[in-house]
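Quick one from the shared queue. A colleague (R.T.) flagged Regulatory protein, luxR family as missing a structural entry in our internal table.

Convert sequence to structure tokens.
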Amino acid sequence: MPGPAEAAAVATEVARIAATPDEPTQRAAALLEALQRFLPFDAAWLALRDDKRAGHESLVSSGWDHRTATYLDGPVLVEEIEQLGMTRSPTPLRVADFPVPANELRSWAECLLPAGLQEGLGMCLFAPDGRHLGFLGLFTASPAVPSDAARDLLAALGPTLGHAFDPLRSAVAAAWLVRSATAAVALTRAGRVLAVPGLDDHPALREGSPVLAVARALLEGPQTSFLLPAPLEPGGYLTVTVLDVPDDVPFHLTAVVVLSPCGDLHGLTRRELEVLGLLVTGGHNNAIAHLLNVTQRTVATHVEHILLKLDADSRALAALRAERRGLYVPPGLVP
């Protein structure tokens, strides 16, 4: 176990690696290499929660065969981590700390003990706001119990390790790319809605909101935007920007949804913005008239005004410009 100077050195090294912009798997491998020098282990597993399939997604898994790695990613360990109370505490557990013998836990009886492992340190990783992100396990073939100092050092590194693999790091960076962003959330493939640190909450971005349903439906490509009617806001609207996230971002995030003040509406009226929303979806005048409960002649007049205001010589071009500029109210948000 390292002394105070060595512990400070490993903390500095872990913080440096955690702050790098590398992909999560690269950061995970580098962090385990740093930990290995001060907390020796024979096998290691660093994984993020996968809510959609009630398991984990390994970032790094070493010291055993593919079958063992697949087993650990499954649901058994999720249940045992909860059973041991680890999802409610940032303090690492040693096998000696278990409330029951290791051979009474399925993961140890069926997987870890047969693999020749007898002790180790394991802990859940948490974000600063308390979100449970994943799990780190460092396992040894020796039955020697890790020291209290080793346990305490890993506990002290926990917040830094959590920050290293918090998927909302990417969400925060994406959200701040939107000029004058005021509120934002991240969406997961499992349907969860996660607050983005540093930006405000907003009723329009809460779970079950029609705005989020529209955002999920409209996102194609790296970015899309549209208008949300907001009578109390300057201009009467908010701009909703939906940003895709890279496939390698962990935690199965699918998009970041950001609110910001609306820009220049080019003189478009409420009804014209609603008509544009239907033009963007390919609607014809008769269908638009039916949906908005107006006559086809009224729709034709709105379209004429839209062409003038967007300097477009066709409805197709007007729809394209409106979509690119986010100058429309999607049908799902029409009052």
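The longest strand covers residues 132-140.
The beta strands are 43-50, 55-62, 93-94, 119-126, 132-140, 183-188, 193-195, 223-229, 237-244, 253-261.
Added to the table.
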